[in-house]
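Entry:
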Amino acid sequence: MRVCLDISAALGQGAGIGRYARELALALHALPDGPELFLFHNRHPLDQLPAELRQLPRIEVPLGDKTWRALMLTGQKLPLAWRGNLPDADLFHGTDMLVPPIPQPAVVTIHDLSILLYPEHHTRLNRLHLRWALPRVTRRVAAIIAVSEATKRDLIARLDVPADRVHVVPNGVDHKRFYPRYRPAARQRAGLMLGIEPPYILALGTLEPRKNLPTLLRAYARLGRDVPRLVLAGARGWGEGPLFELVKELGLQERVRFTGYVPEAVLPDLYAGARLFVYPSLYEGFGLPVLEGLASGAPVITSNTSSLPEVAGEAALLVDPTSVEELTRVMRRVLESKQLRDELRAKAPKQAAQFSWERTARETLAVYASVLGC
């Protein structure tokens, strides 16, 4: 089986979809009975990829990003000069919601439908592009991979996709990197890299409206001053200005630390060293940070919406993400009870053990086989 795998997202971003594309490529490549892989991308350099992936055959699209995105979104035919570069693959897998107009059978991974469910949390350009493109992509491909049961339900309800065309394949976690470790040492290493003084409460994610950070800030402000500082770790995003203003309005300038983008090498220590990890997102297709936090043995509070209960199981405390009062109450409960924190830390790795990138790769390979009839 020869598969052309789109890894463009892995070269353009380090978290979320980018991590999915990279880890899936690595895991498929590592399977003894895995497919012959061709890597496909429209970005470079490849030095952001592990060495074992850089050695694989690859197709670099000789188009500018704007031209390429227009082709992906509109479904126009590829230029004649480029079509000859497409490998003789049996199947194409678009890992980032979109698939180019190609002759081979195609599989697409849909991570979430926030563009339809929460359009106000996206830029106008993204709304115009994806709301037009997604229905066309889901009709054109041979199979769809949804990263959670919640995303599958959304696809069926919002895009009228037949249930038998959607295969749920959850994301994984690298257990060699994310695992419980000696917390004082983890806090010290994270502190040295990011300038954080322990103890700390951690929140992680791009600074954008969907992550619901204003609710977290308001809940944190209600806890009083005798609690650990709040660390907001994540890349800067659109709509971040009001967030900084809210910190000032609540008088939290000395108690809230924005780290910016966190290098992947630091993430495991950052999770493991946290007194508490809070992820109150309004909507997630999967919620990879919750899984990584659990794998690292952090006590986790997350939302009771979308896919997050699937990932958290009974190992995290679930809250209504729209309720400042409930989030405040549950955070206080965890912070005041070492026994509860220890119970959550004990449950977390057991829940995370159900997920791995090898499992993701094997279930993805099964989708390929179903499409090709082999």
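The first helix runs from residue 8 to 12.
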